[in-house]
User: Which sequence fits this backbone?
């Protein structure tokens, strides 16, 4: 076993597709939460293969996509400062700010560097004591342990030239916001397997109970996703609404305790603004006061930078599953990867990018609206 | 961004109080922080790695159990599937999106229903 190729097996996938088609007796609407799952679904055509009775709508689980415009503008502002080495995951570089993006800042001489791990940014700060190293700490719960460790490490090493621009968000409040919305159509969720690898699934149990929705913790390979769909459909058909774990090879009920502990030590729960959605209470993470010295927002006085999101971008509707990417009037015309209006068109997990890159230019015949 | 890749631990070392190690991803080697799985892993174990951090040890028993369950089901469902394919081909080919339409040839008029 290598724990990868086995879950891409076409025979297994076919069997699961047949099972889903045979189980669904009426139309059900499921949302996959994570953008990585969206990409597998669209690339493999899973939403079309499973038949007319199960509709997949794409969730908000793309951290790059939900990072608000003003946070991007703040990153751009810091990145242009001559003393700063601005570090980020590669995904953020093409995300459009109000006027430019990190790629252009770099092209114009800004020291913008892509890092593989947040610890690489800490290493840069050690190697360049006369520069200010800023790391763009975006992400969901999956990435929080890595970013927490970078801050913890910098604290241990006594670094004074390292800081983080935090835009951390958490999944359950976003799911609650979707379920609370009056036009919600979601009847069941595939929860994000790596978010739950860190956090476990206890916090999803009250959601499943209160809103009477099945929630299946699901992996990312085609066979994982098909099995997750099959499990959710079986629950819906049987009138159950439980939290089940498809991704048992990685996810435990209480997640990764060591990771959760360090995240809780470094971060606290704060209100966060989501792109196109607005502020969701208690939906993100910010640095605890004990680590305020590592807060780039305070260090570079960024709080005053505000931005209005462009009206033509319907990212908020796409992220909440109200609109499929190709239903957006700007899709493929005003908005394309070379000239994006919003982050979902350029992020490797963005739903708009998935539709564009895999040639979904028209509504699938199976899913008329 | 929540991409997590399974890889096999080659070695484990202590770096200033933090567990680090090399992990093999099908031939590609990366230095990975093992701090969050340090209590339960040793060289040879598989871990799921996200942005340079192991976030879980792959539970081999669960992986095997799921896989065998799926295998059994796949054999049972194979007949069902073949029947369905036969029926669908009798229905005639449905009007479908042409394969691999290039993003360059996007026609805005077909973007909406």
Assistant:
């Amino acid at each position: 076993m290598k724990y990868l190729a086995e879950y891409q097996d076409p025979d297994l996938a076919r069997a699961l597709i047949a099972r889903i088609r045979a189980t669904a007796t009426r139309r059900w609407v499921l949302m996959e939460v994570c953008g990585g799952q969206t990409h597998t679904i669209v690339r493999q055509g899973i939403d079309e293969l499973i038949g007319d009775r199960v509709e997949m709508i794409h969730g908000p689980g793309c951290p790059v996509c939900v990072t608000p415009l003003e946070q991007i503008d703040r990153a751009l502002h810091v990145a242009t400062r001559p003393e700063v080495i601005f570090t980020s995951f590669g995904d953020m570089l093409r995300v459009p700010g109000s006027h430019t993006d990190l790629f252009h800042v770099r092209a114009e001489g800004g020291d913008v560097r892509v890092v593989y791990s947040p610890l690489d940014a800490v290493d840069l700060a050690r190697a360049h004591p006369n520069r200010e190293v800023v790391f763009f700490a975006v992400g969901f719960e999956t990435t929080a342990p890595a970013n927490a460790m970078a801050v913890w490490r910098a604290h241990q090493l006594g670094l004074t030239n390292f800081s983080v621009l935090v835009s951390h968000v958490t999944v359950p409040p976003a799911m609650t916001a979707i379920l609370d919305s009056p036009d919600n159509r979601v009847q069941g969720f595939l929860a994000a397997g790596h978010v739950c690898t860190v956090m476990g699934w206890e916090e999803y149990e009250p959601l499943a109970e209160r809103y009477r929705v099945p929630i299946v913790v699901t992996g990312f390979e085609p066979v994982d996703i098909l099995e997750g769909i099959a499990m959710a459909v079986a629950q819906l058909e049987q009138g159950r609404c439980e939290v089940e774990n498809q991704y048992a090879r990685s996810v435990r009920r209480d997640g990764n305790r060591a990771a959760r502990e360090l995240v809780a030590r470094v971060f606290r729960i704060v209100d966060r603004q989501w792109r196109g959605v607005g502020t969701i209470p208690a939906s993100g993470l910010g640095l605890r006061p004990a680590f305020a010295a590592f807060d780039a927002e305070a260090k570079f006085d960024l709080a005053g930078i505000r931005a209005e999101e462009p009206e033509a971008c319907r990212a908020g509707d796409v992220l909440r599953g109200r609109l499929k990417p190709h239903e957006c009037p700007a899709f493929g015309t005003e908005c394309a990867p070379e000239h994006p209006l919003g982050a979902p068109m350029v992020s490797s997990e963005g739903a708009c990018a998935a539709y564009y890159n895999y040639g979904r230019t028209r509504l699938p015949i199976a899913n008329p609206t | 961004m929540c991409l997590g890749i399974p890889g096999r631990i080659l070695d484990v070392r202590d770096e200033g109080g933090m567990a680090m190690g090399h992990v093999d991803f099908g031939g590609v080697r990366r230095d990975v922080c093992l701090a969050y799985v340090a209590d339960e892993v040793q060289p040879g174990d598989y871990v799921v790695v996200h942005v340079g951090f192991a976030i879980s040890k792959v539970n081999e028993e669960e992986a095997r159990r799921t896989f065998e369950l799926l295998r059994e089901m796949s054999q049972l469902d194979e007949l069902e599937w073949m029947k369905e394919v036969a029926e669908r081909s009798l229905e005639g080919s449905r009007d479908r999106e042409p394969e691999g339409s290039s993003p360059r040839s996007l026609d805005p008029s077909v973007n909406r229903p």
Q: What stands out?
A: Residues 60-91 of chain B form the longest helix (32 residues). Chain B touches chain A through 60 residues (CB under 8 Å).
